[in-house]
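hey all, quick one before standup. I had two proteins in the batch that finished overnight and I want to keep them in one place so we stop losing track of which output belongs to which input. First protein below, input sequence then structure tokens straight from the run.
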Amino acid sequence: MEVSVGDKVRFLNDVGGGIVTKVLDRRTVMIMNEFDFEVPAAINDLIIVEEAAYTASTSKNNNNSQAQSSVDTELVIDTNDIFYPEVAIVDESGNDINVSIAFVPQARPGNSDMNVYLINDSNYNVLYSVINREDNGKTYSNSVGVLEANVKEQIETLSMNFINQLPEYIFHLAFYRKGDFTVVDPVSKNIRVNPVKFYKEKAYTENDFFNENAILIPIVSDSKLANEVASLSETDLNKIIREKEKVEIKPKSISKKEIENKLVEVDLHIHELLDDFRGLSNGEIMEIQLDHFKGKLEDAIKNRVKKIVFIHGVGNGTLKLEIRNELDRMKNKLSYQDASFQEYGYGATMVQIK
């Protein structure tokens, strides 16, 4: 469903609605509700009641004028400049391919919207296509274009309010440049990022591409180590494995006190629990998450674990509410509080077992 600024919408699973004031990205818009507050909302959770004022006659007139303009003036596009731009070659002899996706926070890491970049750290132009696949299997085009050699380019902005709905990224990359060059095979790669990573400030690191700390994930990377491993024969690899197996590793003894003080993390995001959850309703997903929560909590109590963090995400807060209702029934055995904001943002609950 396409939503435009000015559309009147209502919520599918809640009361109320409002007017769309801004389109944040392909999945998120800002809505001015009946109380004159601007709130973010997921497009998939909306239904259009009345489209923005835009008449068919206006569209028709514009189309006619554009058609007439195209007849009066012949437009010639030089595709050579588009597909073979003048590029900055860092090393004429270098043929390494390094392309990454980067998530750069607009303000404090773990607590702000993020700009998403493609980084081409190589001497090849990259003809790229980025496709997003939602949890329900639906796919849509994110962006396409030519990423010049040794250049970075922003492809979208992600709202932190809906980071838990981050889709899977599908990349199709083709490498080329002017004149003679070594042919590089095209790359097709799928990347799914765990949303928990974005709430951890330490996940954002210094890098060579931005002044700010950022999360960089390689899409394709050439390195001497990787090439050396790839060049090893199966016999060489088996020999290395056998040598490793000869080394006896003495297990480290862990005291009872260390076991009791160990902090256990349990990620309840559905993509961490199931490889394929397409076709499941929200209610079925919630049931699976709660069953996993209860099982892990029982194990923690049985094994005398003192602290356990349940990562439930922000979302609409339903899972968090259900978890805390369950914990309230066990107040004689435990206590709970929000987990460290610096480590988990707003999306986790720490349980301390008595």
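OK second protein, same deal, sequence then tokens:
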Amino acid sequence: MGVSDLKANIHLMVDEIENESILQTLFEFLSGRKNNGQSSFWQGLIDAQRQEILLAFDESEKDENLIEKGQLFS
């Protein structure tokens, strides 16, 4: 998937989010990445917190662990 496709898919996902808190968190994350190339969020975590996030990411790669998008963003 190229840059254009990734951007288009991100735009579609964001358009479906109605939760202001999620949108604010996403905005802050992306703003931090744009401004300094690294997320201050990630840098502010301790190793155990980073490991939890990485584990959750690994678990999300398995279809049986996923939930429908509508359940997540409703």
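Flagging for whoever picks this up: Helices lie at 3-16, 20-36, 40-43, 47-60, 69-72. The chain has a mean pLDDT of 83.
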